[in-house]
Amino acid sequence: MVQMKKMGGRHELKRLQVAALAEVDAVQRALPRPLRAKALQIPVVLEGQPAPALINDGLEPDVLGLYVGEDYADADAGVENVPAQIFLYLFNIWAYARRDPEDFRHEVRITYLHELGHFLGLDEDDLALREMD
Description:
The chain is an alpha/beta fold.
């Protein structure tokens, strides 16, 4: 499930959301069936940039994505009060991709898989070993 957060009807954000949504959908369809079922339960929120409150809390302003919530192994423990969600920051990804549509799609794919990896319990070193950093 992908949720698109509107930001004042900005044409560029909408265009990026459509492209990112298509890429996330393609990635999800390519996942092995058991993993796909789990991935489809995690909302993907497409925003332009991180909220100022997140930046004030220490999140880098140019971050490409963010996973919040418990990882899959701890999901039944109920420790986190935040539902599992993947955030993709499209203006940041677009800038990182040097405003190239093909690079943008590639970075959306890598960022989504990176954040999905966090859901699966992988840390930054694990993700780097899998070239998902």
